[in-house]
Write a structure and sequence with these properties.
It is a single chain. This protein has five helices and six strands. The chain is an alpha+beta fold and 169 residues long. Helix 1 packs antiparallel against helix 2 and helix 3 packs across helix 5. 33% of the residues are buried.
């Protein structure tokens, strides 16, 4: 199967004469693969939930998170962006990556920073840790070090993020 046509600037795909925002090319390939797989699973979940309002809404949230993480929705990946837009994309990346992985798996906040910041991901590490702390405050994720739950506000060093007690998948 051939690649879809792109606009000359590479920012959009053209399918059937209609433009669709392309994924952020700065996302490292292994993370892009995970996010695309999550997007496809979320789209299947929307189809499977047809007629079930709650399940459809949950599946559509999954699609939204995956598309924001990939840069296909939300602030345009080629623009400088705002702090709020970066935080939204970081949170979407955390949720999408955790959904894609096994329930007992964890991710590093740097994974979300790499998705959002490309080669400049290190500049987003403080924001990624702040987003992790906010998600932990909502019990959506659990912040860990060496398998133990820690307070992200006081923890130093490497962190891991796991599904929290109020994870809704």
């Amino acid at each position: 199967m051939s690649e879809p046509e792109r606009t000359p600037d590479g920012r959009y795909l053209v399918v059937g004469g209609r433009r669709w925002r392309a994924s952020d090319p700065g996302i490292p390939d292994p993370l892009r693969t995970e996010l695309v797989a999550e997007l496809m699973a979320a789209r299947r979940a929307v189809k499977d939930a047809a007629g079930e309002e709650v399940a459809t809404a949950a599946a559509r949230r999954r699609v939204q998170d995956a598309k924001v993480a990939l840069g296909e929705r939300g602030e345009a990946w080629w623009e400088p962006g705002t702090e709020e837009g970066r935080r939204e994309r970081l949170a979407s990346a955390v949720r999408s990556l955790l959904r894609h992985r096994k329930p007992e798996s964890t991710i590093c906040p740097s994974d979300a920073a790499r998705v959002t910041g490309g080669e400049g991901w290190r500049e987003l590490m403080d924001a990624a840790r702040d987003v992790a702390a906010a998600l932990a405050a909502d019990a959506v994720v659990e912040v860990r070090q060496h398998v133990e739950r820690v307070d992200p506000a006081t923890a130093t060093g490497a962190l891991r993020l796991a599904r929290g007690p109020d994870w809704s998948g």
